[in-house]
Amino acid sequence: MSKKDKIRASAVRRTLEIIRPHAGGQKWIALGGLIALLGDVAFRVLEPWPMKYAIDLVSSSLGARLADGAQIFGIDLGRNSAIALGSLALALAIIVGARALCNYAATVCFALAGSRVATLLRSRVFNHIQQLSLKYHSRASVGDTSQRLVGDVGRLQEVAVTAGLPLLGNVITLLVLLVVVVILDPLLSAVVVVAAAAFLVISRFSGPKITGAARTTRKGEGKLVHSAAEALGAMRVVQAYGLEQTVAADFADGNARALKAGVRSKRLAAALERSTDLLVGVASALVLALGGWRVLSGAMTPGDMVLFIMYLKIAMKPLRDMAKYTGRIARATASGERIAELLDEPIDIADAPGAITMGRAQGDLDFVGLGSRDGYGRSLFTDLNLHIPAGQRVGLLGPSGAGKSTLAGYLLRLSDPETGQVLVDGLDTREVTRAGLRANVSILLQESVLFAVSIRENIRYGRLDASAGQIAYACRRAGIHDFIESLPEGYDTVLGGRGDTLSGGQRQRIALARAMVRQAPIVILDEATTGLDPESREAIVGSLDELTTGRTTLAITHDVAMLRGLDRLIWLEGGRIVEDGAPAELLTRPGGRVARWAGLQTQGRA
Predict the structure, then answer these.
(1) pLDDT cut 70: percent of the chain above it
(2) Burial of 303 by CB count in 10 Å (0-12 exposed, 13-18 middle, 19+ buried)?
(3) β-strands 522-526, 552-556: how paired?
(4) Which of 12, 87, 195, 338 is spaced 20 to 30 A from 185 at the CA atom?
């Protein structure tokens, strides 16, 4: 087997492997579809026979000699012509109707099975994507991932119905007809066999090229979707800086590359289809010439020749269709390969076998001997040790890139340190379930992430079983209840994408209410006031005091206003803790980093 054949076989095998786990539950529907498909093939084989008898009957009336005793349905064709023709017409109608019914049943069964498999596969892919670490998501293209999740899975589903089902039926039809034509006339059947062999040779060379071109096309489309999503998501910046033409040019360039790859894929598939058309035409001409000669020599009747030509037409149609379906299946294989690549991405952060479910924590935190590197391979932490007693509110300060957010991410198990342990109430975060761990943590980010659902649902995401009263109480504490009540739909108001219909302060207050309704014993504040105007910042800080009171708090900040009410400040720099102490001490320490930073912040706000 050549290298290309191995690659092609591998792509098909990987596609089947990702589908197989979900196909087992659809075996009865698939079996019903297969039975209907076999019925379709049987009626397709029977369909030419009424035509054969009718032609022989007409030929005999014009002087051709009909075999003595030729009958159909017990009717002597030589003596009861009118009845025979009527019976043949009725038989043809019944056969065609039965074949249409079987074809409809097969299509519906396979479409239903394909839709269910695609739904299960899409859910599996989406669940897998959600479990991948932030390290993967930071380097992956959102557009390409979305294209695999929606477009590539959809292509697999579509091809299973529009190509896979017909291809299976055509293969069965071709095999049955090869047996039938060999029995009818071994000489003429050689034409069909040679044509089928020639098609296999042509498709063997064309298939891998179509798959490769389709793979390139799907990758280009994924990049195009990412480019469009990125531009649309940053439309405010694009318009503010007058980048419309630049962004449009980049999109047009990607669009042109995707078009070029798509045209190549279509061109290769069209070349295969037209080569098959030529092959079918030559085979039909040979059968017509040889068959006519055999009729003239008395070796077969006119009806036999028509029967054979119709069988040839039926047999050649699968070849022509298989050329078309080969292109579609090659493109689907490329999609299947892309889905398999995504499913092959390892889940770095997963629950350990036998992980325990954590109850409500006290909030005692320990970071023991942490060691890790940043995304560029540089040392981030080296033997870092930190203990935070339950209920203590700690401010994490330091220059950008010092690892403050990474440290908080370890606490949530968004990633794991390369060495060392993170302990909550003495339990290693690797030894507890992620769901149990994260249920004990509330987080408020600089960019308050809201969803395009109602305000009530956005807040309830903090705690799915929260009642309407608990949601309203959290909103009062966050200072956003009156504003929500002033909206026409109140708490049922549906927000725009990412909450862009609200101001920054309003979005942050809703996110704060979501954190409050969670009532978790550990709170992470990651630049929660950055970017807010002074009035909004002051109001948010007051609400944050209420959120963090009595709870273990990690407050990552570059805002001196956030230091109010904290019990302890820690300055991270160079992978280690440089300063650690009470705010009153560090803010007044001569030459200290915290004191110098606070002084610069105060001057900047003056």
Answers:
(1) 83
(2) buried
(3) parallel
(4) 87
| Residue spans of beta strands (DSSP E) within 316-440 | 365-373, 379-388, 393-397, 419-424, 427-428
Q: How many CB atoms lie within 10 A of CB 494?
A: 14
Distance CA 398, CA 411 (A): 18
SS (H, E, C) 149-185: HHHHHHHHHHHHHHHHHHHHHHHHHHHHHHHHHHHHC
Residues 523, 546: Cα–Cα separation, whole Å? 12
Q: What are the Cα distances from residue 20, in Å, to 23, 81, 120, 196?
A: 5, 55, 11, 30
pLDDT tens-place string over residues 430-486:
999 988 998 999 988 877 778 878 889 989 988 888 899 999 999 988 888 988 999
- Cα–chain center distance at 412: 26
C-alpha angle 445/424/372, rounded to 5°? 70
* In 24-164, alpha helices (H): 27-46, 48-61, 81-131, 134-139, 142-146, 153-159
| Residue 35 vs residues 104, 218, 387: alpha-carbon distances, Å | 12, 35, 68
Residue type, 532: L
Residue 55 CB coordination number (10 Å): 19
Q: Which helix (H) or strand (E) holds 597?
A: helix 593-605
For residues 283 and 195, the answer to whether their CB atoms sit within 8 Å is yes
pLDDT of residue 337: 80
- Sorted by sequence, the CB contacts under 8 Å of residue 357 that are 6+ apart come out as 432, 433, 435, 436
Instruction: Answer with the residue of higher pLDDT: 540 or 416.
Output: 416
CA-CA-CA-CA torsion for 224, 230, 233, 236, nearest 10 degrees? -110
Type of residue numbered 351: D
Per-residue exposure over 381-395, b if at least 16 CB sit within 10 Å of its own CB, e if not: beebebebebbbbbb
Determine if the pTM surpasses 0.70.
no
* Domains of the chain, CATH where assigned: 15-343 (1.20.1560.10), 365-440+520-605 (3.40.50.300), 453-514 (no CATH)
Q: Which of 327, 315, 342 is nearest to 162 (CA)?
A: 327
